[in-house]
Amino acid sequence: MHRRRVRERRSVRASVSLEPELYETLSALARQKKVSTAWVIRDAAEKYVADQWPLLGPVAKDSSG
Fold first, then answer.
1. DSSP 7-61
2. Domain count of the chain?
3. What is the per-residue pLDDT for 64?
4. pLDDT of residue 58
5. Domain presence at residue 49
6. Is 43 part of any domain?
7. Residues 7-17 pLDDT 10s
8. How much is the pTM?
């Protein structure tokens, strides 16, 4: 029996440079929330996009639609 592959949503890896003070602040927030620093950065990026382009809504998060 042929099993169809479930299409997984793939993340794109991005490399960014941050000022040390900003990175330390993001890391402190992550420790407070008990999440990774990457999670805090992704959350902030999603909120920024939603604020800048509110009409896009969930399209910005999931374009497979």
1. PPPPP--------HHHHHHHHHHHHHHTS-HHHHHHHHHHHHHHHH-GGGGGGGT
2. 1
3. 46
4. 60
5. yes
6. yes
7. 667 889 999 99
8. 0.68
